[in-house]
Design brief:
The strands form four sheets. A six-stranded antiparallel beta barrel has the order 3-4-13-12-9-14. Strands 7-6-5-8 form a four-stranded antiparallel β-sheet, with no helix packed on it. A hairpin with a 4-residue loop joins strand 12 and strand 13. It is built from four helices and 15 strands. Helix content is 9%, strand content 26%. The chain has helices spanning 2-10, 56-69, 172-175, 231-235, and strands at 12-15, 18-21, 102-113, 119-126, 130-136, 156-164, 186-194, 205-206, 216-222, 227-229, 273-275, 279-291, 296-300, 311-316, 343-345. The chain has a domain at 65-224 and 275-345: Beta Barrel (Elongation Factor Tu (Ef-tu), domain 3). By secondary structure, it is mostly beta strands. InterPro entries: Ribosomal_uL3 (IPR000597), Ribosomal_uL3_bac/org-type (IPR019927), Transl_B-barrel_sf (IPR009000).
């Protein structure tokens, strides 16, 4: 009797004189905890830094040279990073085609006003130094997590990099990704699923002119990481009273109803845990304003996921009623941007550079 109880406790099943260990296998989505480590296929990016025998003057000189040569071209116009845009292909845009996206940084929020006086809230996103690194055709592309779809090899993949960095600070494996792209290594990489007709040649620059004013985009970002938090901050619980018999349970969850016949914690119960650091997608944001000089775009709302300075991914919206009705720059924008004071305003916005009050002679 005692042996059967122990074997049941340890997860053992007896079959004759043999004991077989039974392991419980759960699905990947059982615990929705944030992934704090890189996957196994992720290449090591930064090299180990050693304390070389360099004087303070030499270190300062090396830092100045790296800053001048590998700065962000969106801010530093006289950068040495210069690439020639390949010619556009002859594909024709259709509403069912999917274009490439861009990598941007969330740089803040700013209010705008419509011509009728209505105030709207917008988020500023800067597309800094984006280039196409590689195109993977549909027959060769294999995602890390294979989705359950009927036709997996229907679309290809474009690898996009942003923000040029010093190659001396990167590993040989990571720098090898950019060997045949014609551009210097980038700090950030992202993959975008595209249609075969929307493929881009390596080295193609992606600017804010990839989108038009008035279009709708989807923005994907990672929420602010708050770490392990209690139920008051994580779920907005009220907490216990401050006095009248309450002892050391002011900000605790209290009874979760785990007794009785069920005798367990129900899945989805609001309890303390890790808060933030989750990928979130905000869909259907209108592009209100574009600055072609610094590659900045104003998008609708102030709920874009991530902190100020965080990375976000922007691409055409997938909402059926907000998709592009007219052909956007396909597969991307080629040529020189329009010179209209480096700012492009949506027709319903009030342009601060124009007159708001006019006087007429009687």
């Amino acid at each position: 009797m005692m042996r059967s109880v122990i074997n049941q406790f340890l997860g053992l099943r007896l079959s004759g004189n043999c004991s077989v260990l039974v392991t419980q296998v759960r699905d990947k989505g059982h615990l929705s905890r944030p992934r704090l480590r890189n996957p196994q296929w992720f290449l090591r990016k930064e090299i180990t830094k050693y304390n070389d025998l360099m004087t303070a003057e030499n270190k300062q000189f090396v830092n100045e040279v790296g800053t001048n040569n590998f700065g962000v071209p969106a801010v530093i116009k006289d950068s040495l990073v210069k690439t020639e845009a390949p010619t556009a292909n002859e594909a024709v845009w259709t509403p069912n085609l999917r274009r490439c996206g861009v990598i941007a940084r969330k740089i803040g929020q700013y209010p705008l006003w419509l011509k009728n006086g209505e105030r709207i809230r917008t988020t500023l996103l800067q597309i800094a130094d984006n280039h196409v690194i590689k195109y993977i055709p549909p027959e060769e592309y294999l995602p890390a997590q294979v989705p359950k779809v009927a036709n997996l090899h229907k679309r290809g993949c474009i690898l996009v990099g942003s923000e040029t960095t010093n190659p001396a600070l990167l590993t040989k494996e990571y720098a090898g990704i950019f060997r045949n792209s014609g551009v210097l290594p980038k700090k950030n990489l992202a993959r975008f699923i595209v249609s075969p007709e929307a493929q881009l040649a390596p080295g193609t620059p992606l600017t804010v002119n990839h989108f038009r004013i008035g279009d709708f985009v989807d923005v994907r970002g990672k929420t602010v990481d708050h770490g392990f938090q209690g139920v008051v901050k994580r779920h907005g619980f009220k907490g216990m009273p401050a006095s009248h018999g309450v002892t050391k349970t002011h900000r605790r969850a209290g009874n979760i109803g785990g007794g009785g016949e069920k005798g367990r914690v129900w899945p989805g119960t609001k309890m303390p845990g890790h808060m933030g650091n989750r990928w979130r997608i905000i869909k259907g944001l209108r592009v209100w304003r574009i600055n072609t000089k610094y590659n900045v775009m104003w998008v609708q709302g102030s709920s874009v996921a991530g902190p100020t300075g965080g990375l976000v991914y922007i691409y055409d919206t997938i909402l059926p009623f907000r998709k592009n009705k007219e052909a956007p720059p396909f597969p991307t924008f080629y040529g020189e941007p329009q010179q209209d004071g480096d700012d492009l305003w949506y027709e319903q916005l009030h342009n601060f550079k124009s007159e708001s009050i006019t006087y007429e002679n009687e």
